[in-house]
Amino acid sequence: MKFVAFNGSPAGKNSATNRIITAFLAGAASAGAQTANYQLTEYQIGQCQGCFACWFKTPGRCVQADDMPQLMQAYLEADVVCLASPVYSWNMTALLKNFVDRLVPLKSPLIQEQSGNFDMADSRPRPQQYVAISNCGFPGENNFSIIKAAFSCCNPCLEIYRNCGKLLKSANPAVQPAVAEYLRWVEKAGYELAADGQVTAATQQKMAEPLMSVADYVKFLGM
Ligand SMILES: Cc1cc2nc3c(=O)[nH]c(=O)nc-3n(C[C@H](O)[C@H](O)[C@H](O)COP(=O)(O)O)c2cc1C
Questions:
Q1: Mean pLDDT for the chain?
Q2: Taking the model in full, what pTM does it have?
Q3: Which of 26, 46, 135, 183 is deepest in the core (most CB within 10 A)?
């Protein structure tokens, strides 16, 4: 089983998002999964030009010469695809959105309807499961409303949304135990998904617990 993560944080390896991904993949690896973690910021990914040459002229292949073929290959080889991004302006980053747009060669010019939702048909069977991962700077679940709606289109088998995300990179010793415990639950989630094909409600509930009170977080930020 192969878990592949695509991190859309411009901060790449140093991002809070990457701390979540790393813990999750470590858990999956400890259950025997192969893992790979792609920092999208390290790759050259042109914007989709909307020319649809990848459907009508060179089916399955984009006209742009950049790093997308390598990323697409990794995406296609994955059993579990982790799409990860911090919240930027209530949404996923442009980096992750651009990557997702560039997966359009995997669609085909055939409109299909499922339960009232219209989409393009996949050009090949899509056996991958999806995991959505995000963190945001503010307290409050409402910051994830838009990103949740966007991710719902790929019907994720697991969603990890971490508010008060600034804590994840903090070197403050008063904060670290709570962060370390949170990351242990994330790791457990990775283990469970790789070992059992699903993550227990108890683990999901633990991952959703607050890291600190809103008042303490505001104090922590010094705002
Ligand atoms: C341009 C920009 C827009 C942001 N918009 C939001 C937002 O709408 N809601 C929020 O809670 N945090 C927002 N943030 C804060 C980030 O989500 C937060 O700093 C996060 O921890 C960054 O994660 P990363 O280290 O993985 O990149 C924004 C940050 C930037 C730079």
A1: 96
A2: 0.97
A3: 135
Closest CA to 20 of 216, 219, 199, 183: 183
Confidence of residue 83 (pLDDT cuts 50, 70, 90): very high
CATH number for 19: 3.40.50.360
What's the rounded Cα separation, in Å, for the pair 67 and 71? 7
Nearest atom within ligand 1 for CA of residue 91: 8
Tell me the CA–centroid distance for residue 56 and ligand 1, in Å. Answer: 38
What is the residue range of 106's domain? 2-221
Residue 158's pLDDT is what?
A: 98
Identify the residue whose C-alpha is closest to ligand 1 atom 18: 137
What tokens appear for 20 in the block? 């979540």
Q: Which atom of ligand 1 is nearest to the CA of 15?
A: 25
**SS3 labels along 27-96:** HHHHCCCEEEEEEHHHCCCCCCCCCCHHHHCCCCCCCCCCCHHHHHHHHHHCCEEEEEEECECCECCHHH
Cβ pair 92, 150 in contact under 8 A: yes
Q: Is 11 in the pocket of ligand 1 (CB under 6 A)?
A: yes
Q: Ligand 1 within 6 A of 103 CB? A: no
Domain count, the chain: 1
The pair of three-digit structure tokens given for residue 5, joined into one six-digit string: 């993560």
Q: Say if ligand 1 is within 6 A of residue 165 CB.
A: yes
